[in-house]
User: Fold Efflux RND transporter periplasmic adaptor subunit from Microvirga makkahensis.
Amino acid sequence: MKAVSRTRLLTSLGTASVILSGVALWALLGSTATRSSDTGPMPSATPATVAAIDRRDVSLWEEFSGRLEAIERVDLRPRIPGAIESIHFREGSLVRKGDLLFTIDPAPYLAEVEKAEAQVRAAEANLAFARSELERGLRMTANQTIAQRDLDTRLNNVREAEANVSAANAVAKAARLNLSYTEVRAPISGRVGKIEVTAGNLVDGGSGAPVLTTIVSTNPIYVSFDADERAVQRALETLPTGGDRRDHLARIPVEMRSGPDAEVVRGKLQLIDHTVNSASGTVRVRAVLDNGDDRLMPGQFARVRLGRAKTTPAVVVPERAIGVDQDKKYVLVVDPTHKAIYREIKLGAAVDGGRIVTSGLNPGERIVVDGLQKVRPGALIAPQPEAPEKSAALHTRGSSASTAN
Assistant:
């Protein structure tokens, strides 16, 4: 009996030993697994191009639609009536001030000149006779052989003859002037238009006469546009203070394109109208452009950029660094631990491949500029330097920012 009890006791002790050994092994394995998990590999950093943001000077521009206008335009009319004898220009050609364009038959006016000059000679002959009579009378006065009344008459005859000479000269001058009007010359330099009256036709003279052709000046040329009154005010505020700011309008730059692929033509502000259109809230503005190569034509459509007299300091980021989150714009700021931080920003005007940031970003902060689609907020960043040419393009001083209207 005692032997059986001893056997059972040994069996129970063996079983308990096995169970305890299993528990110890499980605990050891669990502890090892935990330590293995705690000391596992860190998550890998995402490569991304990073750049530091700074504040730089930019030229702010606002864009408007406008039309080109000739500075001078002349409807050429004859000053005297007559028959068009000849035409001396080609339609659409460039002419200079003083170039002969039309000739009106000069024969009748040449005859008038000859007649007037003959009257001058007759008046001069009468004056010479009156003067000789006066001299004779003066000699007779010394001998007291002429009455004072006769002497006064001879003096009056001289004065009347002098007046007749002056009148005859005036008639001759008018006749010669009318003769000169038979040569219709260009009053301005520019491009001549269509011939409205051909050779052989009779025309009247004066303001009611028919238009022979039209001339418009081409260089320089105006561009006129309606600008938002607030944009005009912002531009005027950059001019020197004191006195009338409008005396310094030429300091405000203007750029113009006649099409999306056309070259930029630069000019200067010349006029800001004195009245705001109450219906549209716009002001009529005019600038002067150089047109030395004669590419621009009056009436042509133009996209005009109105600048400011001074540059403005601004924070600018590349377009490719800006993310879109529904109706929000954001950038990923890289903190000192190389972690990407989501930052909402407010944007201003476009500027040379970038955008002005009006709020949400400070100079000196680093942002992800390339690889934005690969980086999530909170991710670890492996910063890569920005390509020199991209950095130089964005950091050029005096860059221009444009806002369309």
The radius of gyration is 47 Å.
